[in-house]
Amino acid sequence: MKLTVLIIxxxxxxxxxxxELLEEGHQVIGLRRNVEALEGxxxxxxxxDLNDLEDxxxxxxxxxxxxxxxxxxxxxxxxxYQSAYPEGLKRVLRIMEQHKTPPRRVFFVxxxxxxxxxxxxxxxxxxxxDSTSFSGTLMCEAEQALINHSLPGTVxxxxxxxxxxxxxxxxxVAEGRVAAITPVVYSNRIHRDDCTGIIAHLIRYQESGETLxxxxxxxxxEPVTMHNVMMWLAKQLNVxxxxxxxxxxxxxxxxRCDNQRIVSTGYQFRFPSxxxxxxxxxxEGGFLEVNKA
Length: 293
Hints:
- This protein has helices spanning 12-23, 78-96, 134-147, 168-174, 192-207, 226-237, 260-263, 274-284, 287-292, and strands spanning 4-8, 27-32, 44-47, 66-69, 105-111, 121-123, 153-158, 160-162, 177-179, 186-187, 189-191, 215-218, 224-225, 243-245, 255-257.
- The protein is of the alpha/beta class.
- It has a single domain, classed as NAD(P)-binding Rossmann-like Domain (Rossmann fold, 3-Layer(aba) Sandwich), CATH 3.40.50.
- Strands 3-2-1-4-5-7-12 form a seven-stranded parallel β-sheet, sandwiched between helices. A two-stranded parallel ribbon has the order 6-15.
- Strand 4, helix 2 and strand 5 form a beta-alpha-beta unit.
- Helix 6 runs parallel beside helix 8 (274-284).
- The longest helix has 19 residues, at 78-96.
- One of its GO terms (molecular function) is aldehyde dehydrogenase (NAD+) activity.
- Residues 5-169 form the NAD-dependent epimerase/dehydratase domain.
- It comes from Vreelandella sulfidaeris.
- One of its GO terms (cellular component) is cytoplasm.
- This is SDR family NAD(P)-dependent oxidoreductase.
């Protein structure tokens, strides 16, 4: 059955998701402020700023079977997060609920940053969010706005996303910089292609008649220390670690994300761990060739 999927904040993840859905025969509409990036993708562009939806009519947004809200804040500031997440999502929900045919489900792309654990604790969907940062707090506010809304909604908390073009860690290692062994800092990661794979899978899951949960953690199958990830990368790049790098204080959380809820739905990770994922990024990004030269 052909579906219409509206992707709000159609950036890297949205475009990748759109291509996957188009291959399945669905119609995809991508909403963003700058639609030039959608040229040649097959995604129908919709140029719009969410701030313009304050008092907008229902016709401002098209009807869709599924809505994927994957907006990114303009900058790491409280006002930007407030606008992008709770305020923006609430505006979209207010409009979509007025449609003659409301969406079957709204997906909100959130972050595992809502979990602020620092001692390597295991967290899952039942673990109460406890972030003290403004970013985590505002993400939680947006999550609750969706979960408490009359429209069916599902939150997907992605961990650290990497993939093509998201290679900052590789560049740091290439410069000989690696994380310290101690204090032990656990890192949770997910390849961009698994982000889009999970969203597409959950749409298919509901269409097959299954019941979706309110929240899923989107993280790969192997939580690992940052030191081990960077040392593995150094080995692939044939680089000697020459400098110990300390994480910025605001990012020094340490937890292990349990992904069993999404796995139990039948989703099979394309990149089960950082090894498979970074091997693909290293190869496609030409990092190995550059190093050989």
